[in-house]
Design goal:
Layout lengths: L2 H24 L17 E5 H7 L1 E7 L2 E6 L8 E3 L11 E3 L4 E3 L6 E2 L5 E3 L8 E7 L2 E5 L1
Antiparallel strand pairs: 1-10, 2-3, 3-4, 4-9, 5-6, 6-7, 7-8, 9-10
The chain binds FE2/S2 (inorganic) cluster.
């Protein structure tokens, strides 16, 4: 084998062996919320029962599903869970226990427990989540 042929074969071999590495490096790998799932039909942990029971509210700003405000106690039959960002201009809403509604401190919009607008200027409902207790965790699902 001539020296030039040998070098060509070695070069081709190196190129072929590095191809899988180059393909893997170029493929897109992003973590989806599903990747962090609890494995139970899309339920995502947003906090602990102890945190929720302390005040009857649990705010998870950076949960796998985004910002979530859970209202209730672990013994309650149905927990309320919403995205607390007001649909008007994004201020965080607060829970009004006496009125059983969410109120926005910025421009006084009000939202029902199912997220519906009770009073503007907001004209879109808050996003809601199903919520439940799973062991000592509070989990939500879109
Ligand atoms: S940001 Fe909530 S009412 Fe304007």
């Amino acid at each position: 084998m001539k020296r030039r042929d040998f070098i060509n074969w070695v070069g081709l071999g190196l190129l072929a062996s590095s191809l899988p590495v180059a393909i893997a490096a170029c493929s897109q790998q992003t973590a989806t919320p599903e990747a962090k799932s609890t494995g139970d039909g899309g339920w995502q942990k947003v906090g602990s029962v102890a945190e929720l029971d302390k005040s009857g509210q649990l705010l998870a700003k950076d949960s796998p599903v985004g910002a979530v405000l859970v209202i209730g106690k672990s013994q309650a039959a149905n927990l309320i869970a919403v995205n607390p960002n007001c649909t008007h201009k994004g201020c965080p809403v607060t829970w009004n226990e006496a009125g059983k509604k969410f109120t926005c401190p910025c421009h006084d919009s009000e939202f029902a427990t199912d997220g519906k607008v009770l009073k503007g200027p907001a004209d879109k409902p808050l996003k809601t989540y199903a919520a439940k207790i799973e062991g000592d965790s509070v989990v939500v699902k879109s």
